[in-house]
Amino acid sequence: MFRPVKIAEGIYSVGCRDWDIRDFHGYSTYEGTSYNAFLVQGEKNILIDTVKSGFGEEMLANIGRIMDPKKIDAVISNHTEMDHSGTIPLVMHKIGEDKPLYCSKMGAKNLKSHYKKDYNYQVVESGETRTLGNRTFTFLETRMLHWPDSMFTYMPDEKILFSSDAFGQHYAGDKLFDDEIGEEIMPHARKYYANILLHFSPRVQALLADVAKMNLDIRMICPDHGIIWRKDPAKIISAYDQWSRQEPAKKALVIFDSMWESTAKMARAITSGIESEAVHVRLMNTRKWHRSDIMTEVLDAGALAVGSPTLNNGIFPVVADVMTYIKGLRPQNKIAAAFGSYGWSGEAVKILNKEFEEMKWDMVSDGVKVLYVPDASDLARCFDLGVTLAKTLKEKLSE
Amino acid sequence: MDKWECPCGYVYDPEEGDMDNGIEPGTAWEDLPESWVCPLCGAEQEYFEKVE
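^ Those are the sequences you sent over. The predicted structure of the assembly is below.
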């Protein structure tokens, strides 16, 4: 059981840690995650978000250590995704289904689609402020960050932002605040951004501009996953600003798979070529690296070489998996090249080039194709491709 | 006529309109009624960006 943690006067973190989860809808969570929910006590007792189905009793027990859960007067749902709304039916059943459920317009629609219930949805507009008992809440729609229903809840008196999935991290541990965990949390926050929010980067930029315009004084950020940012909330805001700009670093990735080691040899030669130009490089075999870890590296990589053998006239399935995943997250400002070995038809390179084109990545060449097994001159061509990629990236960065 | 894209991925194509919601083919983005929202996710028009 999780000890409810007081985060401000009368405000508690009452969510649950999921220590065991290792695959979060296709995202590798080596250190589990947490489903954060928050109880605001006052003349009215308000629950902000809930936890994933299966964790409901634990959350209610956490709340029970502070007060009788039946005394919750209203629920605020910042986000409909089931890891945060999965226990709304349980909570509403407990407190009475006529109790108000505050959410965005799309929240009401989406909660209904999920739970098939006509709860007492209280739709709030973006920028709207509601006083519930002696507490004040301002709601800010954050549409498509990362669902149509997503919103933030801000408490202007306490200066606390409940940010839903934004600024979160998949991490379960005994450290609950940024000042307790330090820098160790940043790779988790970065992975979360790359895998959940990257394709909404233009919306993140717009949101940060809105927040700046509103002049919100944010003393604490409480996301729905991972640690709470209380010492330095500006740190994660500025990291989001940086990540959402998608500025390329002097870093390249060579992502590949291989059937008979030929494409692997090509990948290693390209890697050497990149290294020879003193550009940081990572060689990532798609059957050794989880797609979500590759994605985290894609976030700031300026150049990518992607290699696939041709299998049955197509791209190798594991490379296709990773490419589909990367493409969905729409990384921008990349320089790219394709490569691969083939036996007779050799479509893979062409297919990869088409993928690059669709993502608006700049290709440095048509790529390198090798029949069956690369010889020394083929590997020299691969090395040169690495050099070209690295040089093109350096030129771009010096502009 | 310009196409406009919603953050959710839906693209409004004036040539196709949005017949399910009473928008005739050939209706330019500028001529959409104010009440028209993204048919997939419900986003208002201000969220859309022009497809370059």
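Chain B has a mean pLDDT of 92. The beta strands of chain B are 4-5, 11-12, 49-50.

Shout if you want it in another format.
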